[in-house]
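Students often ask why we bother encoding 3D structure as a string. The short answer is that it lets us treat folding as translation between two languages. Here is a chain of 136 residues written in the first language.
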Amino acid sequence: MDQTPDQPAARFGIAELAREFAITPRAIRFYEDKGMLHPAREGQRRVYGPRDRVRLRLIMRGKRLGFSLEEIREMIDLYDVDPSEVAQLKLFIDKLRLRREQLRQQQVDITETLAELDRLEAQSLDLLQQRDRASA
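And here it is in the second language, the structure alphabet:
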């Protein structure tokens, strides 16, 4: 939606953003305390603009992908340094590749752990059957 000079910028209250992103107002205040959101103030009321809304969307996406808040902040803050988004995109690609590798390693670890659990369960069942036969 294009903004005309006589049309005010979109503004959002904390409750509105909390509903939109299915998070608590406390979570939004937490991101604000961490310096990731920068709402304007109207008296005691926080007023968030389109930039904060986009940043919140990026925070939620980053969390869903398993990035730390520090990694998310690093990626978001790069836009302020390089509005062309080139540096941001390169860092994002690097972070995605690293995260993918971490998840693949976790997948290998989980597969190995599940196999070990299966093996130990089978051994334990065999021992139990041996003890049941010996006591019968």
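Translate back mentally: The first helix runs from residue 14 to 21. Keep this in mind for the problem set.
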